[in-house]
TrEMBL record:
This is MICA1 monooxygenase. Keywords: Coiled coil, Membrane, Monooxygenase, Oxidoreductase. The keyword Coiled coil applies. InterPro entries: bMERB_dom, F-actin_Monoox_Mical. The keyword Oxidoreductase applies. Its main location: membrane.
Length: 154
């Protein structure tokens, strides 16, 4: 087993572990966002009740509650944006994993001697190459989507 093949295998395992760790971190953050959503929702409900039920309160108090409610809405919108970014990151990780698997398959076909390749091997190699191009294009679309979102936020 040549050294370069061992190196490629090791790098593939390392990148797979990195993707796995990133996926776990994203999942944890999505769960945190979900909990925060629920908390913000509860706070918002309390503030709305105060605003409706305490219509006789001083104007300063009502203004303060309204400002708190607007702050909660802004915080929720920021979390929704972050959640959207994380969902895109999840899709990107899936595509990255697909790309690595296809790279590995393609490399195994390309390492085969041309004289030993059958017609089926040639077709399989072309199909994998086609799938690889599709995955790369999908990743490109995700990156463009992220860039558009970033620019729209500015």
């Amino acid at each position: 087993y040549p050294t370069w093949k061992r190196t490629l295998a090791r790098r593939a395992r390392e990148s797979q572990m990195k993707r796995f760790c990133r996926a776990q971190a994203i999942q944890r953050r999505l769960e945190e966002i979900e909990v925060t959503f629920r908390e913000l929702e509860q706070q918002g409900i309390k503030l709305e009740k105060l605003l409706r039920d305490e219509s006789e309160s001083p104007a300063d108090q009502q203004t303060q509650w309204t400002n708190q409610l607007l702050y909660l809405v802004q915080k929720k919108n920021n979390l929704m944006t972050e959640e959207s970014d994380l969902m895109i990151a999840v899709q990107e990780l899936k595509l990255e994993e697909q790309q690595c698997q296809l790279d590995e398959k393609l490399r195994s076909y390309m390492n085969k001697e041309d004289t030993l390749k059958t017609a089926e091997d040639e077709r399989a190699e072309q199909e994998i190459l086609k799938q690889l191009v599709e995955v790369v294009n999908k990743r490109n679309v995700l990156i463009q989507l992220q860039e558009e979102q970033r620019l729209s936020e500015l």
